[in-house]
Amino acid sequence: MADSAGAGSGPGGRPSRGSGSFTVHLAEELEVYFNEVAHGRPVGFVASPKWKPPTDVYETETELVVHMDIAGMSSDDFTVEFADGILTIGGERTTQHEGKPHYHSMEVQVGPFERRFRLPVPVDPESIRASYEHGFLAVRLTKLPARLSGPQSVRVQ
Description:
Layout: H1 20-38, E1 55-59, E2 63-69, E3 78-83, E4 86-93, E5 111-118, E6 129-133, E7 136-142
Antiparallel strand pairs: 1-2, 2-7, 3-4, 4-5, 6-7
């Protein structure tokens, strides 16, 4: 007698292992199991000691700007340092609710974070300023003018 589930189907009418939808379904099931059952963590939880907020780095005619998306903090929660050509931004975002909630999904990162950037253009270290408004941190540094001396040659001795 022929299999009533149809060609290409596995037990219970599920797609066979060769099907892309089965692979996606299995991956989702394994993620839920791994995060919630094996480790007691909600889906989406990242067990990294420091996470990395999304950040844009761009330049205008006169400035280099680092623009970080980091809602739920206050201006006192950040550390911003510039040394040896590296800009370091750090801090810690805490949860916004009381007690120990039972998560069904957790996508908002909490805990300590740090981002380090080697700046792509020369800047004046004395010009660094930072502001936090509407959930975005903006760090601005004045660009140094390009050297006007042109190419340089060195005589090998």
